[in-house]
Amino acid sequence: MKPIRILSESAATGMRLRDILYQAGYTEIALSALSAIPDCRQDELRIIYAKSRIPDIIREAAECHAQTILLLNPDCYAMYLDRARYAGITLLLMPVTPEMLLDTVQNAITA
Prior knowledge:
It contains four helices and five strands. By secondary structure, it is α/β, with parallel strands linked by helices.
């Protein structure tokens, strides 16, 4: 199974995302700060929750060439939709339902 790295500005959100994935049977999950984006491996799936520095995060994530799911709040989702798609990043709107998160992760892992 592909390893998953959750990078979050909010420790509580990161832990909640990890709990959802763990309860669904994903066991190889790491939590990291957003500053670890450039250090991610290409073979892992990254799930990023960000509220600030979004253009920089999209650029850094695209440069790493790893599969990335970016979770954004409603106030900035539409603003970065095209930029993220162009960079090959999947966007999800927060708050994300557990079902939507699991479906998106499963699709990314099997792609």
